[in-house]
């Protein structure tokens, strides 16, 4: 039943994706009841998740595509191997 | 038998026809632009070399993707085996009597300003981006695939050839580092 802070926060991370099992959640909650640091981690972790969700569409959206120059170089490189 | 071949390879048109598709596929798994570009180029080279093995059963693109998938796994193995200089700082004791407990200076501290700070827009976005970019590459790919691209756990494990328990350890390290980075660079300011 007893788990370490490392394990507790790992379950906490897992539960941010809805993938912690019932048993894991029980162990986590028992731990959180007794551990102030992990309670704080858990609270802040949820805030981080919320921040990510509301910014997801902007995160690393800076043109994830190849430009024409890059493709031309690629084509030339490939030709030398043909 | 020759006549039953449906698909043929046309390397002269690979870049034109498939470069964007292969690149998009790669960038969603390996987030570095130049690295992704190199993997696509290598895939084309490998495809040329192996073109005699193409049986024509799959489409040209499917065949190229299967080569690319292998390249991504190889790349991921490589970054995972290099003992990281850019390793994340440990947050918990890893041995001794206190194994698994928080290391004092890594303990989360209160964010008094979380309410106002978690709704701000562009600057929060920048801070998040910077913190995510700071993650070591070996954690960044898994973290991004799971968190930003919403891949299923099983799929990531298959694509990067890792176990689910590996995956959660990586996510855990990435998130403890991310929390700390956001604390230092955003919430405590």
What does this structure look like?
The complex is a heterodimer of chains A (82) and B (189). Chain A has 82 residues and is an all-alpha fold. In chain A, 71% of the residues lie in helices and 0% in strands. Chain A has four helices and no strands. Chain A has helices at 5-15, 22-34, 36-55, 68-81. Chain A is elongated, with a radius of gyration of 22 Å. The model of chain A has no long low-confidence stretch (mean pLDDT 91). Chain B has 189 residues and is mainly α. Helix content of chain B is 59%, strand content 0%. Chain B has helices at 14-27, 33-49, 60-81, 114-117, 122-133, 137-147, 153-160, 164-187. Chain B is elongated, with a radius of gyration of 21 Å. The interface between A and B is large, with 39 and 53 residues.
Detail the topology: elements first, then pairings.
The complex is a heterodimer of chains A (82) and B (189).
Chain A: H1 5-15, H2 22-34, H3 36-55, H4 68-81
Helix pairs in contact in A: 1-2, 1-3, 2-3
Chain B: H1 14-27, H2 33-49, H3 60-81, H4 114-117, H5 122-133, H6 137-147, H7 153-160, H8 164-187
Helicity range of chain A: over 70%
What is the CA–CA distance across the termini of chain B? 71 Å
At CATH level 3, the topology of the largest domain in chain B is Arc Repressor Mutant, subunit A
- Rg of chain B, please? 21 Å
Proportion of β residues of chain A? Answer: under 5%
Tally of separate helices of chain B: 8
Helix share, percent of chain B: 55-70%
Topology of chain B as a string of helices (H) and strands (E): HHHHHHHH
Shape of chain A: elongated
Number of helical elements of chain A: 4
The description of the largest β-sheet of chain A is: none
Oligomer: heterodimer
Offer a quick outline of the entry:
Helices cover 71% and strands 0% of the residues of chain A. Chain A is built from four helices and no strands.
């Amino acid at each position: 039943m007893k788990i370490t802070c490392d394990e507790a926060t790992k379950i906490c991370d897992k539960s941010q994706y809805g993938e912690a099992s019932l048993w894991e959640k029980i162990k986590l909650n028992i731990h959180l009841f007794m551990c102030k640091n992990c309670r704080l981690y858990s609270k802040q972790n949820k805030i981080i998740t919320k921040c990510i969700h509301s910014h997801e569409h902007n995160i690393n959206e800076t043109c994830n595509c190849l430009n024409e120059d890059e493709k031309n170089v690629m084509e030339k490189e490939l030709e030398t191997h043909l | 038998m020759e006549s039953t071949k449906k698909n043929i390879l046309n390397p002269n048109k690979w870049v034109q026809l498939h470069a964007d598709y292969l690149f998009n596929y790669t960038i969603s798994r390996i987030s570095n632009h130049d690295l992704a570009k190199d993997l696509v180029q290598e895939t084309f080279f490998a495809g040329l070399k192996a073109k005699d093995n193409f049986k024509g059963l799959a489409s040209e693109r499917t065949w190229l993707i299967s080569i690319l998938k292998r390249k991504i796994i190889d790349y991921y193995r490589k970054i995972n085996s290099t003992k990281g200089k850019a390793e994340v700082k440990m947050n918990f004791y890893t041995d001794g009597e206190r194994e698994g407990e928080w290391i004092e200076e890594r303990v989360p501290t209160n964010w008094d300003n979380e309410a106002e700070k978690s709704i701000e827009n562009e600057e929060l976005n920048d801070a998040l981006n910077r913190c995510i970019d700071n993650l070591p590459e070996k954690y960044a790919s898994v973290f991004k695939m799971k968190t930003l691209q919403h891949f299923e756990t099983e799929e990531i494990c298959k694509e990067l050839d890792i176990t689910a328990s590996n995956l959660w350890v990586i996510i855990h390290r990435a998130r403890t580092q991310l929390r700390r980075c956001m604390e230092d660079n955003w919430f405590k300011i």
